[in-house]
Amino acid sequence: MKIEKLSKTKNKSVFLIKGIKNSIANAIRRSVYEIPILAIDSVEFYKNDSALYDEIIAQRLGLIPLKGDLKTFKRQENCSCEGKGCNKCIVSLKLKAKGPGTIYASELKGKGFEVIYPQMPIVVLAQDQELEFVADAKLGMGKEHAKFTPGILWFNAYPTVEISKECNSCGECIKTCPQKAISLQGNKIIIDPNKCDLCGACVEKCNNLKKAIKINASEEDFIFYIETFGQISSEEILIESVNALNENIRELSKKLEKSK
Amino acid sequence: MIIPIRCFSCGKPIAHLWEEFKKRIEKGEDPKKVMDELGLERYCCRAVFLGHVDLIELTSKFKKF
Fold this sequence. Notes:
Chain A is of the alpha+beta class. Chain A is 22% helix and 38% strand. By secondary structure, chain B is mainly α.
């Protein structure tokens, strides 16, 4: 197995992973929904004069991405308080605001968390309107609710490119490629596999001319794209989803061992 | 009504980008350019921005119940 980092921006990483099976790659992708992430889960309203109903505001609050210390913090089910809820598994927040003006996520007060995007508008209040609530945030997983997802992970097969001797470097394929992955280097046509998305436009074009290009999807090399929503970094999403997958398989094998 | 916190389809947080988008569109910039610079790659997120109408300031003048 070989891993190569192709690119990294603030919230997106691209890796080339060579030598794994499609089933494993897909298992890693699905395990993103098994990573524990902090989000608001229950809200109690004391006052809400705004144009939005309590439920709508509660839903908006749940979707706001929060950063918390995920190492020491515990899931409510696994906490020493046995699911009652204590300060090891629940973060309390509150907000008190009066109009007029936009109420932003930065106005959420509490300890043990951080609002990742402070400029998110929660609601707009008119003159004399008031909003007051307390809320509880807890760790959850993407499989329970989409608000607990740390990001998106997707992959596609790495292209294997073959250009036969028939090629006369006519350059017609360069014009058809929508990804601009083909270039002429010296006298040779070069296809950049990192840019190619397997659309097959060049193959189709060349079939009418020389039948020189062959592009196939590799069955064991994959490009992984990981985009984070901000709670954890994009590399951490990949590592944590592999950890979550490991954890689940270990649990399964333990149970199987017992039932022998 | 008010800009959704996340994109309807993909779940990317987008609400924090709205005010900058609105300000720049009002200045007369091209929406395509602004969305590219804000990092809205997929057409699901872009559709949320292009189709959105801020109505909450108007509706907040009326009684809810």
